[in-house]
Fold these 3 entries.
Entry 1:
Amino acid sequence: MQISQLQQTTHTQYCQLSAKVSFENQQQAHQVYFRVPLAFSHHIRLCFEPFLFSLLPIALVKQEQHLHIEGALCPDSLANATSILKLFQLWYQHPHLPKITAQSYQVQQPTSTKAGLFLSGGVDSMASFCRSVQTYPADHPRRFAHAFFVYGMDLGDPNKPDARKTYQQTVHALTQFLQPYGCTLVPVTTNVRQLYGHWRFYADYHFGPLMAGIAHALSAKTSEFTIALDNQIQNYVPRGSHPLLNKYFSSSFLTSQGLLEAYTRLEKYAFFEGVPDAIGYLRVCHSPPTNSQYTNCGQCEKCVRTKLELLVNGYLEQGTNFADQAITVQHLQQIQLSNILELEYYQAIETALTAQQYDELAKIIRAKLTKAWRLRFKHKLLQWDQRHLDHRLLKTKNKLLAWLKPSKKSETLLESIDNISGKG
């Protein structure tokens, strides 16, 4: 892989940082970009680090021999990128790592003392923001002054329908929410995932390094950034955002910070007490309703799980951004535990429901948790398939899907196998 022709360009409605990306076994080159509206052009830093971090996992899985930067690279970025590759090799047993080189190496100075975070609207990032507001005075450098909201990650997923309407709705809502707290929402769009859009790669390798790249693209006004983590540190499995991985997302001019790794999801709701209006701005749904004022359907697994968390924390009535705000037995019965990381959430929810005497709801969750061994087995099986068979089991399953029209029952089973290491 070669990354060259770094440039910052101004267009009618946006400012763009771009570079040319060439693969060793492909003749066609690609232009990769990070875009912000013109009003935020002063956030962009002209440097190669955004492309190094965001493209590094792609070079690894495409088995590129080299990753060469046709320009200057921060030596700290080089050291950290090498550590990222080594960690992925440890996790996923890669026999070969691309060698990272650059034309020159140059330390850069931070140009700001402000902190930023990635704010998706989910519980983890919103709790991190609320903690910042309650912990630091307005002029403290650790208080979040900028929040990054991205089109081209879960919204803008190349495997899903266009979600620009939901993106624009959320940009408007979060801008309104953040303004009283002195925090600026910075909307950013990227096409990095178009180069390698497979959802499993995104979950296992890419979403953390992609955020690191975006943060470096916007580092002219930020000296540190935070990626909110969703699980407790002891429950993490190898994936694209991980406490051991995220610390390597730093350079000489931008530092990656971790927060709340020891907290359960339910414990994070304590930070909403001082900023209760944040509950009404939550956006957790990966399949939001179309042509609706709501950005959460209220019926999918993630929406129902979040409503349960709101219920046991006394915030359900404030959760006004769900198209379906109710919690019914039918909602819970339809839940399919498909992700090993979900076990942590539902175990805490079941305990809280039992303690608060929501006995019928707790009973349903308890019954589902008794089958948790299946998720652990499937997780181990897919790890073994990935490390030793190059996903041949998964590829065979996909071929069978293409040949057979699965019944609803078999489709549910296959989807559950697919999703066990996805995001929670």
Entry 2:
Amino acid sequence: MPIDEFIINIYLMVEQYYKIVVTKPLRGAGYAPKLSDPEIICMELWNWSVNF
């Protein structure tokens, strides 16, 4: 599987499960985040898989 498809698949899975697990917002105040929580989780999983 090409790398770009792998990253997209990771993101779609994270986004799907994130909607199920997180029922209320994690952030309430402060500046608007530049990245969403699923995007950050996807980057962390990608980093973990590359270094594995």
Entry 3:
Amino acid sequence: MFWWLWNYLKGYVIIKVSGFSVERFINLSALKGYIIWDIKSFGRDRMMKASYKDIENIFETAKKCGCSVEVMESYGLPFKAKKAGKKRVFSVGVIIFALAIFILTRFVWIVEVEGNKSVTDSEILEFCKENGVYPGSIINRADFRKLGQDIIIEFDSVNWAAVNIKGTKVIVSVSEKLPQMDIIEPGDYASDIIAKKDGIIESIMTEKGTAVVKAGDVVEKGDVLIEGQVILKDGEVETGRKYEKAQGTVMAKTAVEFETRVNKNKAENVLTGETGKYYKVTLGEAVLTLFKPDENKLYNETTARVISPSIGDFKIPFDIEIINTSFYEEKEKSLTSEEALNECYSIIESKKEELLNSNAFITDQKDEIYETDDEVIIHTYISLIENIGEEVTTNNIRGDMVTDGTKGDINSR
């Protein structure tokens, strides 16, 4: 009903499209967002309905496609007004439309919150609703200044709040207090470098701290590689330890194993050439879907455009989203053994790219290939040399010193 009324008010025409590229014309029109619907075939010709406002563009598109367009009939309020030779009916429509807009702009349709962090949107919106401000509430009945003051009183973490109305949208702006806490900079803590995976140490370069492993050592994930401390000695005698942030690079031999499978029989989406469109009308929080394709049909969808009417700052409280659809069928595709194998290797290369970085390189790769009636399987074994070091913060304060088992403090923090 809404769609019929909308088209009647805007005006539409029934056209006949002829030529050798009618399908191309339909696809191109849909791509450009022209409103056409109710398409019917008559041999090579197509009859369809089109929005009156798009008719000039439709003629131009048809010319590009080598097609001819003939207007068969015209319907809607604009044509009725022309035929009558009077503006009476049109004026009544304008008055009704203006009255509807006036009524709709008396209500709040959108409430947004900005500037909040610790207090959630839902908490503030619920409080606004309790105080008479919510989508669908009457604008003139709300005291926005008082609501801003009440928000400051209600939420301890809010330092300042203001509620402003812009058209039919209410914007709640808040500023929160900074939390009072003792801040300890992360740089004040010492750290260790630990192993993020199992491996055999290949080399270790220590910049700060003390290495506790050497080349050839076998380490497990979580083992300490470089301690964030410096051993202080008097000759050969240890006199104490000073904590600091460990820095260094630990290269190790690691191994990765994974399996890749590709089915020889796979579903493939094949476009049928059939296209269409449907509409989503949003009014406040309500959403109405019009002319959506059958749920049993398979299709891709893309948003062609969104119509959001407004008059100055006054946003008319509904949106119309035009969604283009392209239908497809799932067809079974059979791969040869070679095609399935190539697809497996393509997947393996993608996985290898995820493994490698500036501090890693592959030293060896072994693939074991298996094939069944239905699929190709590859077991891959990769040997790497990579940096396995990972910095973790300790509970020790950087610069603290332990001497004879007693923690102290030195000036060079």
